[in-house]
Design a protein that fits this description.
CATH class of the largest domain in chain B: Alpha Beta
Shape of chain A: elongated
Largest sheet of chain B: 7 strands, mixed
Number of strands of chain A: 20
Distance between the termini of chain A: 46 Å
CATH class of one domain in chain A: Alpha Beta
Order of helices and strands of chain A: EEEEEEEEHHHEHHEEEEEEHEHEEEEH
Order of helices and strands of chain B: EHEHEHEHHHEHEHHEEEEHEEHEHEHH
Structural class of chain B: alpha/beta
Number of domains of chain B: 2
Number of helices of chain A: 8
Radius of gyration of chain A: 24 Å
CATH topology of the largest domain in chain B: Rossmann fold
CATH topology of one domain in chain A: Chloramphenicol Acetyltransferase
Largest sheet of chain A: 7 strands, mixed
Oligomer: heterodimer
Strand content of chain B: 15-25%
Shape of chain B: globular
Largest interface: A-B, 28 and 22 residues
Chain lengths: 390, 324
Amino acid sequence: MLEFTLPSLGADMDEGKLVQWQVAPGQPVKKGDVVAVVDTTKAAVDVEIWFDGTVHQLLTEVGETVPVGAVMALLLAPGEAAPPPDAAPRPAAKTGAAAAPAAAVAPVRAATPTTAPTSRQRVSPAARQRALELGVDLARIAGSGIDRAVTREDVDRAAAGRAAPAPAERAVEMRKAIAAAMSRSKREIPHYYLSEPVPMRRALDWLRVANADRPVTARLLPAVLLLKAVALALRDYPEMNGLYVDGRFSASPAAHIGVAISLRQGGLVAPALHDVGSKPLDALMRELADLVRRCRAGSLRSSEMADPTITVTNLGDQGVQSVLGVIYPPQVALVGFGRIAEMPWVDQGRLSAMPMLSASLSADHRVSDGHRGGLFLARLREQLQRPEEL
Amino acid sequence: MTSTSYRDALREAHRDALQRDPRVILMGEDVGRYGGTYAVSKGLLDEFGPERIRDTPLSELGFVGAGIGAALGGLRPIVEVMTVNFSLLALDPIVNTAALLRHMSGGQFGVPVVIRMATGAGRQLAAQHSHSLEGWYAHVPGIRVLAPATVEDARGMLWPALNDGDPVVIFEHAQLYNMTDELPQPFSADIEHAAVRRAGSDVSLITYGGSLWKSLDAAQALATQGISAEVIDLRVLRPLDEATLLASVRRTRRALVVDEGWRSGSLAAELLARIVEGAFFELDAPPARVCSEEVPIPYAKHMEDAALPQVPKIVAAVRQMMGR
């Protein structure tokens, strides 16, 4: 029996509300299939499954809010026979929080497991008391405590969030999530900031020619060149591309670039374009357009929310000259682009007008130093002088 | 504030008591010429003479009984027993005589004796010198049981214990003697209340003696993981300060007892029972405990370490309670 658990769709997510099941018991699924739509504080996300199997039992009901790591469904592994009807009790809770650093220590109560299998919902005495006071229906609450027991905090949270999440509330929640992630970033990450002016004439000229024989709908935007250039430059600077978790940095072999996209109702998300370095520009353009569209329609996929290894933010449209961004933890770098504008340019003593772009890097000083950061930006600048290689 | 060691604080407490009350005497194995097994009484023989600082034969049954007799006869004896393991030879005079006489004499006789002993493991002294049997004494009505874990309590608890009028047993964790800390001036130490050594909101770590410092370290480690642990130092193991204990648990809704004793039939078991009796409806998780493994305390360092409550065990137990 395989367990499908609610994945974390970003460092700032700790629970999600099931909006819809996309599968039914008995239905076979393949790795990558969308099996559920889950509402997070940021968006409704299409959650994908990571293994092949056949849906056996759906454990979470539509409308239920469950913590990250909660088992939402049971699946039969390929070739596995369905057990007799009552032989599949709801499994003991698994909260997905990473194993404790002290996990090597045997659980204290291991010798006398108190977690005898039971179908009864676990509710702490304090939670029961509070639910009575507040008139909250315990059956609708997913527990976050020991053995998935409902705690007093869970009841308080449920009581606070009883009203259906109106759009205004979604905006408030998203603002809270952004506040939490950005505060954590500024609290934990020693940022350093570098910026570099990048001449863009060659890139723009190349783009004009390249777009001349493309239909309007397939035309490339400068943003795509910038994303690809960042991905290629990252190949030699792995310390900008990866995640810093539990005091250790691990570089990512591929550049999954989180593209900061502001939403019409306010707030922003930064879902991933996967493995940008290995994709041709036309494919990237299609994926980017699709991502922005789905982002604004509120149908992101779970892998897009969870995977970014670096973020790129482009505020050029808004007309700012440069942006020094805040890193999205546990990532370790953020590349920012301002607007492309003509500036005086001196080349071999001659003054001319040059379209210029300010590229900036915010990076985590725990992982990299300004020297390397500077080299990375220089590589990015040079990459953009050779658009034909992108 | 002056910096002093736990050992020196105890010695000062003895000197102070010997100076303040001519009825106070100290007796025990090697307390005189040798200066005490843990050097608590070093120098006291020279200062107060052999009448008041008395080396005794190696017979716990004999000299503890003599101390109880001296208390009945009008003195205020302090009896030092080398370790709690050896004190078992004196259980009869302590439990059958000292603890009972007020009752059996219809209130006519109290036994104002103070019996001090080292307890606890962690110094590779092997099974016969390393056990923690505080809970056995805390079981017995008629005696007060103290566990000073700080320099201030080491300095301050002896005098009120001598003036309690009934037998008082004081447990000194052997790992604390070398600990140095600031001694506030003036110091204060009652022999009735538990103390909140660190305030927190998510879980109450309830402990005493040598385990206090491990619990404080664990609380520190937990703080870095976003868990706010309160640390309660029991100080008085009998009678238990239930009010402080329950007030803390009602606030944090989770309780973990850290006790170097074995867990079966233990003080930790008693504490959990009191918590469940008094705060069941306030709890967010089953109360839990980290105790010594149920084995004779081993001699080998790595095995001794593994047998005792340690910071990672405490941290893991708390995380489990928090559902992390």
